Amino acid sequence: MQLQHLPYTPLRITSGFGPRKTNIAGASTYHLGVDLGTDKSKPYTATDGGPVTAVLPGTVISNYYNVIRGWVLLIDHGTIDGQNIKTLYQHLRQSGRPVGTKVLAGEVIANMGNTGVGAQLHLHFELRVNNTCVDPEPYLKNIKEVKNMGNITLDQAKKIVKEKVGVDDNTIQYLLFYKYGETLIKKIAVAVQ
Ligand SMILES: [Zn+2]
C-alpha cells in the first residue's frame, strides 16, 4: 500500500506514533497518529497553517467537531491490497469538505488549525488499516513525491507546467488555490520535466 500524496507539505513530523509523555490535559498518552508541523517558510497565522490535502483518492465519511479533536475529517479510501484504508485529519481550522465529497489525492480538504486540545498549530494525521491505527511515518516517507521533488521551487514548477503542459495563469491559480495545492503543481512539473 502506497500513499500518493502528503497530507501537508513539507513533511515535518513533530511527534511520532506510539507511547508518549504529555503535559497537555486531554491529549492522549498513546499517540494514534503523527503530528505534522506547519510550513515555517510561509507567513501562516497561529490559527491557520494553510492547506491540508488528501493522501489518496477517497470519500469523506465523517466531518465533525469535538472539544478534544477539534475539527476532524475522516476519509475512506476503500480497499487497497485487500485492506480497508482510512485516514483522519484533526485540529483543522474549520469544517472541511462535506460528508459524501469524493476527493482526489492531493486535493485540498481543509486548512491546518489549532482547534481542540493541542499546544499549537499542527495537523494530527492517522492512518487506519482495517480500522486499526498504524504508524503512518514509513508510508509518508515512502511517497514518490517526497523522494522525487527535490529542491524544485514553486516558481520553477509553475514555469515548467506553463511551458510544457501549456496551461495559462488562471488554470495555475485554480489548481493552486481552489482545488489541489502547490504539491500537485510540483508533482506535475517533476513528471513532465
Ligand atoms: Zn497528534
From TrEMBL:
Keywords assigned: Signal
The answer to whether the entry has keyword Ligase is no
Q: Name one GO molecular function term.
A: metalloendopeptidase activity
Residues in M23ase beta-sheet core domain copies: 45-136
What's the protein called, per UniProt?
M23 family metallopeptidase
Instruction: Indicate yes or no for the key word Signal.
Output: yes
Q: Which top-level group of life is the source organism from? A: Bacteria
CDD domains xrefs? M23_peptidase (cd12797)
